[in-house]
Write a structure and sequence with these properties.
Length: about 180
């Protein structure tokens, strides 16, 4: 289990435990997985269907940060260093905006495939097919898809079981972790 820093002051670990208990259960699960094979998570980044979420210093990346696992979407320097496969998927660049767009479209595409009614302002012509969504998860090397508190805030109600079935995954934590098979 991740341990909190010993120094006095702001304690992000305690904040996550106290204020985001469901996400903390996800963090604990991921932190206890063996180091090999490498765990790569995909968690929501960007604004989702709620455009008010599009601002800096928000919750995207929180699961990767607190679990110590590689995130497919997050700070571009970390993503580039820890997951070289990202270069090929994102048009040969490490552009953070592009990575956020692809991640957002991937989540929206999975929700759309699962029958979730998307807001009218979502350009459905940019959504990926279910087959392309599955291929992107594989190309990114994603081993675990996160559907936690932030993803619910970004995209609305999420049925973890139905999304797992769409991608051929297994629900590992009912709070929102799908192992991608």
């Amino acid at each position: 289990m991740p341990s909190a820093p010993a120094a006095a002051g702001v304690d992000g670990f305690q904040y996550m435990r106290d204020e985001h208990a469901a996400d903390w259960r996800i963090v604990e699960y991921l932190a206890h997985l063996p180091a090999n094979p490498q765990v790569v998570i995909l968690e929501g980044c960007g604004a989702g269907v709620n455009r008010r979420n599009a601002r800096s210093y928000n919750m995207p990346g929180r699961i990767a940060v607190f679990s110590g696992r590689t995130g497919a979407c997050g700070w571009s320097g970390h993503a580039r260093l820890h997951n070289p496969r990202l270069q090929n998927v994102f048009d040969g660049s490490y552009d953070t905006a592009r990575r956020m767009w692809v991640t957002e479209m991937l989540y929206l595409s999975l929700l759309n495939a699962g029958g979730v009614k998307l807001p009218a302002d979502i350009d459905r012509s940019q959504l990926f097919s279910l087959e392309r969504s599955r291929a992107l998860l594989k190309e990114l090397g994603v081993t675990h898809l996160i559907l936690g508190e932030w993803e619910r805030r970004m995209f609305g109600p999420l049925n973890v079981t139905s999304i797992a079935a769409l991608i051929g995954g297994t629900v590992m934590v009912p709070d929102g972790v799908i192992a991608v098979n």
